[in-house]
């Protein structure tokens, strides 16, 4: 009987076990390169948000009063930041659905990759894209007169809460993209996103709405983030009384956690359930 000795070449990696973090970064790089080659979706999405900002800020803003007083532009900008995080849901869902429909996700599944790496890569790439969009929108706000009036710690916390909401909505988008890949899936998500975005305190205070509608708007996760960031930026909140006026930062912290705890496991189950 002979014994075979296996030697490894210098520099050869011996541990080939899946590493979700490393593989997620590699897949995120692939998604970023796709945007570099075809940037129009990202550009048009950002242009649409800027258009909404200009339309509501200058076309309708003169007719809207902020409860408690304050400039409407200062009230609107943090709401637009939160709305941008919500609108990113559609791009996440569409990208995941396209990859699954074209068989790219199945190719990833055939490789010795961690089951979490594909979703993690999408999450990293989309979060980076949203951070870029948020930075551009904040710069645009500064150019039209918006100013945060608090210190650096509060401003950083406001940005963290905005990206925290986007992180939570990523898992909802990934779940929807893996679960619904038909021709009408994107339309269905738009039908979902627009009422959630507008039935909130993004554009007007809940105190200007009928009682029951204002209550619904106050319990919207987007409203929580919008109100919390207004408070942290030192801008008018439009909330002079009620639970949200006193606990906006808490609500903006808890809502994304709840969404993540619900949809992250659902997204993982949807990925495992894809046909090979």
From TrEMBL:
It comes from the Bacteria. The keyword Heme does not apply. Residues 40-274 form the ABC transmembrane type-2 domain. GO terms for molecular function: ABC-type transporter activity. Keywords: Antibiotic resistance, Cell membrane, Membrane, Transmembrane, Transmembrane helix, Transport. It is found in: Cell membrane; Membrane. The keyword Membrane applies. InterPro entries: ABC2_TM, ABC2_TM_bact-type, ABC_2_transport, Nod_factor_ABC_transporter. GO terms for cellular component: ATP-binding cassette (ABC) transporter complex. The chain crosses the membrane at residues 40-60, 72-97, 118-143, 155-178, 185-206, 248-271. It is a multi-pass membrane protein. GO terms for biological process: response to antibiotic. Signal peptide: none annotated. Belongs to the ABC-2 integral membrane protein family. This is Transport permease protein.
């Amino acid at each position: 009987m002979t014994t075979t000795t296996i030697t490894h070449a210098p520099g050869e990696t011996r541990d080939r076990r899946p590493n979700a973090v490393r593989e997620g970064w590699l897949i995120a790089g692939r998604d970023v390169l796709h945007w570099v080659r075809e940037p129009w979706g990202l550009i048009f999405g950002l242009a649409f948000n800027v258009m909404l900002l200009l339309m509501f800020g200058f076309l309708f803003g003169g007719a809207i009063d902020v409860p408690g007083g304050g400039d409407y532009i200062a009230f609107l900008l943090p709401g637009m930041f939160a709305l941008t995080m919500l609108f990113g849901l559609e791009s996440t869902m569409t990208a995941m659905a396209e990859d699954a429909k074209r068989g790219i996700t199945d190719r990833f599944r055939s490789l010795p990759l961690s089951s979490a790496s594909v979703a993690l890569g999408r999450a990293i790439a989309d979060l980076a894209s949203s951070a870029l969009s948020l930075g551009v929108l904040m710069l645009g706000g500064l150019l039209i007169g918006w100013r945060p009036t608090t210190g650096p710690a509060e401003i950083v916390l406001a940005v963290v809460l905005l990206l925290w909401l986007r992180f939570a909505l990523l898992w909802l988008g990934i779940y929807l993209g893996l679960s619904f890949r038909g021709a009408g899936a994107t339309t269905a998500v738009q039908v979902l996103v627009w009422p959630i975005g507008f039935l909130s305190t993004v554009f007007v205070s809940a105190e200007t709405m009928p009682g029951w509608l204002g209550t619904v708007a106050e319990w919207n996760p987007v409203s929580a983030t919008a109100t919390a960031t207004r408070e942290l930026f030192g801008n008018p909140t439009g909330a002079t009384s009620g639970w949200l006026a006193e606990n906006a930062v808490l609500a903006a912290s808890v809502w994304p956690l709840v969404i993540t705890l619900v949809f992250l496991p659902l997204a993982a189950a949807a990925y495992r359930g894809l046909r090979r």
